[in-house]
Amino acid sequence: MSLQWNDAPLNLEPYWMPFTANRQFKAAPRLLVSAQDMHFTDIDGRQILDGTAGLWCVNAGHNRKPITEAIQRQAGTLDYAPPFQMGHPEAFVAAEKLVQMAPKGLTRAFFTNSGSESADTALKMALAFHRMRGDVHRVKLLGRERGYHGVNFGGIAVGGIAGNRKLFGTGLAGVDHIGHTHDPARNAFSQGEPEHGGVEMANAVEARMLALHDPSTVAAIIVEPVAGSTGVLVPPKGYLKRLREICDKHGILLIFDEVITGFGRLGRAWAADRFEVTPDIVTCAKGLSNGAVPMGAVLVKENIYQGFMEAAAAGAIEFPHGYTYSGHPLAAAAASATLDLYREDGLFERAAALEHYWQEAAHSLRGLPHVKDVRNLGLVAGIELESIPGQVGKRAFSAFLQAFEQGVLIRVTGDIIALSPPLIIEKAHIDQLFGTLQQILGRLE
Ligand SMILES: Cc1ncc(COP(=O)(O)O)c(C=O)c1O
After folding, report:
1. Which of 169, 339, 185 is nearest to 270 (CA)?
2. Tens digits of per-residue pLDDT, 92-135?
3. Counting atoms of ligand 1 from 1, which one is nearest the CA of 296?
4. Label partner for 203 (CA 20 to 30 A): which of 51, 118, 403, 433?
5. What CATH number should be reported for the domain holding residue 424?
6. CATH code of the domain containing 286
7. Which atom of ligand 1 is nearest to the CA of 118?
8. CA 90–ligand 1 middle distance (angstroms)
9. Total domains, the chain
């Protein structure tokens, strides 16, 4: 029988789905039709527990009334306003709320529409900042192996995932990568921040990469404080602090991509707060508007903003960059309501309070067949499975399908299960999530 939606046949063919095995999906679709708080409802009317906050974005839970109403109000008042040489109040209100929540010293917010756009915006800011100050040799960008900064050309250039790069030509010039921070030989099954190798790994950045490039030619280093998309790689203790010191020593801007780690995911507003390391630039998106309307932002230190203001001629556009939908009225209204809700409901503190329970539940999977690592921080967990030889990803994908069958949404990347629930999660949901996984992993081929 063909699929029906709104009393008409639903044709799946015209939509070319992103990051999806289109042929496989269209042969056996998984369709979600509504959501509330911790649950989706699928097209068959089944309740699906959201173990991934959508795609790491619905931190306040689904369909929260204050956010939905703010969007509805805004849509009926000002649907759109051009953002170039024009403005509307809601964008300024959202920016003020965002910088009030920002890591200390980051005082200005530039709006984008996604994490990918935030990454590319941040890289352009870094390059332009040095150049506008006359430091014209700082033209190189360093990313990190296993980093994910979205899918635009800048993001894939500094990103460290071969599969996202190899089909797309030669990428940006002047980009190199530092080593990733994953050391399973010493740090497997770490609870929270791994113990071993943090300072050593950061020192290796200075010794190898910077000597190779001459530090005075490097504009910025961009890292995810905790790598999410490549499978929850928590940096060992001391790594980020040492990286900050190295950047300071060499006049290199440090960019934290907090698209996943921002907005309470790690039990504080930002990873920068959790690790007590202040970057020069922070990129964010996802949780900024609770996923309800696309929105991203780049936060910068005051000296970066002032660098642009001082270098440009009076009356000139200081940063020739922006998007038709930067600070879109609906997105701004959603962000404003979302940031209020995080504060009013104390959701970041709630994530911190649940971290221990979450950690215990995640590590209860240790010892099950094929489980070769469990790692966690805040309300994030990664469960890494042994791959079937020659079929990387197949085993975890099978777990994903079985979990969906059993009413639980998990996310998989390669053979790693990555979990990141809405911060409103209750202990009973945590039990259900890991209980289901325990069952599935217990008999996974
Ligand atoms: C760290 C990080 N940066 C950037 C992005 C890209 O965000 P978007 O898909 O909104 O472009 C993601 C998405 O998962 C991400 O995790």
Report:
1. 339
2. 999 999 999 999 999 999 999 999 999 999 999 999 999 999 99
3. 10
4. 118
5. 3.90.1150.10
6. 3.40.640.10
7. 4
8. 24
9. 2
Q: What is the DSSP string of 131-172?
A: HHTT-TT--EEEEETT----SSHHHHHH---HHHHTTSTT--
Tokens linked to 45: 């009317």
Residue to probe by mutation, ligand 1, list 259, 288, 289, 295, most atoms within 8 Å of CB: 259
Same domain, 237 and 325: yes
Tell me which residue of 142, 184, 144 sits closest to 161, measured CA to CA: 144
Burial class (CB in 10 A: 0-12, 13-18, 19+), 302: exposed
Which neighbouring-strand residues pair with 281? 255, 300
- C-alpha 148 – ligand 1 centre gap (Å): 7
Q: How far is the CA of 149 from the centre of ligand 1 (A)?
A: 6
Q: Is the model's pLDDT at 209 over the cut of 80? A: no
Do 108 and 233 fall into the same domain? yes
Report how far residue 175's alpha carbon sits from residue 187's, in angstroms, rounded to the nearest whole number. Answer: 29
- Rounded distance between C-alpha atoms, residue 192 and residue 363, angstroms: 11
Last residue of one domain, picked from the residues 326, 344, 362: 344
273 and 298 part of one domain: yes
CB neighbour list of residue 173: distance below 8 Å, 6 or more residues apart: none
* Claim to verify: residue 103 and residue 177 sit in the same structural domain: yes
Two structure tokens written together for 284: 């964010």
pLDDT of residue 1: 54
Q: What angle do CA 235, 237, 241 make, to 5 degrees?
A: 90
Same domain, 401 and 309: no
Nearest one of 266, 187, 163 to 224, comparing CA atoms: 266
Tell which one of 112, 164, 260, 270 to mutate to probe ligand 1, the residue whose CB is within 8 A of the most ligand atoms. 260
Task: Name the pTM for this structure.
Answer: 0.98
